[in-house]
UniProtKB/TrEMBL annotation:
Molecular function via GO: ATP binding
Keyword Magnesium: no
UniProt-listed PANTHER family: ABC TRANSPORTER, ATP-BINDING PROTEIN
Native organism: Dorea ammoniilytica
Family annotation (CDD domains): ABC_DR_subfamily_A (cd03230)
Protein name as annotated: ABC transporter ATP-binding protein
Stretches assigned to the ABC transporter domain: 2-231
Keyword set, alphabetical order: ATP-binding, Nucleotide-binding, Transport
Length: 335
């Protein structure tokens, strides 16, 4: 349906989009997620023909957005980061103007305008000048304009930015409703926002696509570095001795909580859940455990890992810490 092929956008010598390729298939809500400045708006502006690319191309239903803009744009509706609303028009005048630009047949215009006005909840402001509307209403007018013509794909750049919580919920509901008949692509720098509405996430960092999958699969990606945490009423050396009897351990990070308690963060080989083996080893040694738990990877960790490498950094830590203050380098503990 949409194919983005090897897209590059340079602003002077700054690379805003760096060899980006992805495909959009019918019937999903795609989320383009990335920190500020990652290149989301630039990508969306190129996809919708607002901006030319330095390299690469965008095909919409097989039509090149630059070479056949009219045919390509027929299938897309776009809400840019700054809604393209004309301040000195009333809402209705502006939608009339947008309907003409979109070449919606005259006899369908009134009905379509009334439909989008109802769907976006702007009936009570339809005869007001856009300059007198609040940010939330202007955003909805921009959204109404994007939906007008009911294109197959609706592209929304940060659609809820600047809205109050009630408006955010309303816009999300509208996006979900629209997704029954339209393919939606929306961008956000907020993970919660994307997770809430999207069934497919594309994570972009420094202009590059670093991951593209369902939220569940993304969470599973880092399961290979799953942790088991245990706490035992014993000194670090005793916990080390017992864990030497357990196979399948890749790495252990020890922390001495006080003279009697030790916490160990265990990374296992192939993300295997070896809690039973650990429990049995401690029982065999007559050593009570106060905690034994499995820590699951969250989407936040995946996002941070892919955009900043933070999670990797935390996994690399291999020290024994005394009350979290004094850091003592351990023996590697790579059992
Ligand atoms: N017209 C421009 N001229 C020069 N640099 C630009 C221009 N537009 C964007 N950039 C730069 O390109 C990079 C990508 O910007 P872009 O707006 O696409 O990111 P974004 O992911 O949409 O971020 P945000 O969420 O902050 O809008 C940033 O470093 C930005 O400063």
């Amino acid at each position: 349906m949409i194919e983005v092929q090897n897209l590059v956008k340079m602003y002077g010598d700054h690379t805003a989009v760096d060899h980006l390729s992805f495909r959009i298939e019918k019937g999903h809500i795609y989320g383009l997620l990335g920190p500020n400045g990652a290149g989301k708006s630039t990508t969306m502006n190129i996809m919708t023909g607002y901006l030319g690319a330095t390299e690469g191309k965008v095909l919409i239903q097989g039509h090149d957005i630059l070479k056949e803009p009219e045919l390509a744009k027929k299938s897309i509706g776009y809400l840019p980061e700054q809604p393209p609303v004309y301040m000195d028009m009333t809402v209705r005048e502006y939608l009339q103007f947008a309907a003409e630009l979109k070449k919606i047949p005259k006899k369908e215009r009134e009905k379509q305008m009334n439909d989008v006005i109802r769907m976006t909840g702007i009936r009570e402001v339809e005869n007001r000048l856009i300059q007198n509307l609040s940010k939330g209403y202007r955003q909805r007018v921009g959204l109404a304009q994007a939906i007008l013509g009911f294109p197959e794909v609706i592209i929304l750049d940060e659609p809820t930015v600047g809205l109050d919580p009630k408006q955010i919920i309303e816009i999300r509901e509208l996006i979900r409703k629209l997704s029954k008949k339209h393919t939606i692509i929306l961008s956000s720098h907020i993970l919660a926002e994307i997770r809430e509405v999207c069934d497919y996430i594309m994570i972009i960092s420094r202009g590059k696509l670093v991951a593209s999958d369902t939220p569940e699969n993304l969470e599973n990606r880092l399961k290979s570095s799953r942790h088991i945490e245990l706490q035992a009423k014993a000194p670090v050396t005793r916990v080390q001795e017992i864990l030497k009897e357990v196979s399948g351990i890749k790495k252990v990070d020890y922390r001495k909580d006080n003279n009697l308690m030790t916490t160990a963060q265990i990374e296992t080989r192939n993300a295997k859940d070896i809690r039973e083996e650990i429990f049995t080893a401690f029982a065999r040694n007559n050593q009570p455990l106060t905690t034994l738990s499995l820590s699951q990877t969250t989407l936040e960790e995946v996002f941070l890992e892919l955009t900043q490498g933070k999670y990797t950094a935390s996994l690399a830590e291999q020290e024994i810490r005394d009350d979290g203050k004094e850091e003592v380098t351990g023996d590697g503990s790579d059992l």
